[in-house]
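Below is how a single chain appears once it has passed through the pipeline. First comes the sequence as given, then the structure the pipeline wrote out for it. We keep one example in the README because the format questions we get most often are answered faster by looking than by reading.
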Amino acid sequence: MNTFIKKLIHFSVGPVIGATISFITVPLTAYFISPEEYGKASLFLLLQVLLAAYLYLGIDQAYTREYHEVADKNLLLQNALVLPLGMATIISILFLFNMSYLSNFFWGDPKQNGPIIMLTLSMYGMIFERFLLLSIRMEEKAMLYSMFTILIKLLTLLVTLGVLLFWRKDFLSVIYGTIVGQLLSDIILLVIFHKKLRFRLKYYNKNLIKKLFLFGIPVFIAFSIEGIFTTIDRFSLKWFSNFKEVGLYTVALKVASLMKVFQ
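Resulting structure:
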């Protein structure tokens, strides 16, 4: 029982400290840029959250379900990555061929293609980060899991702050700071756990991939619907109001959401 409680506490450390760092990040960012610019940045972060529901295809949940059923954990991990990486590639191609349209749709400027390029890069990082952290969690390495959870938030804060202080003070600073911070964390994860990702053709298991996909379909549908409901408020504000209102609403919403972690 003592071991269980200790692990529970260790697993809780990461989310609590991560939420604290996020709590610091929100007002700091809002201090340096105008509500309008923050509103533009929040739409990018919102799009990133929405994409996650479609990228994983529910296979992240299927991975945890099958974890103790499959003896070779690397085989399971690498087969679980196949469809999400394929989905990321398809979405990336669609985004890159429609950069001007998407930039104009989200930020009112068809020339702002940088965020779209950064988004396509971040999709791959999000997938590896998600599944590697799940792998650590399933191995019950509580402190290691918490350390990486904190590292991701901390690097995002430091890089964003650096960009705001020494480069520019607009919505691009938040986007670039967030993505670069995440990618740095993901690179560290990949370097440390590269042995888990030694892809071998012999590891490819069509039946296992199909099994993961079929289990993930209901989860994918549920998460997709949930993603639409949780993001439609800010998209509606963008369509029917302006970026300033989106920025003010997002700051208030983030503070309220972060407070839930401490309840």
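The chain has one domain: 2-261.

See the next section for the split statistics.
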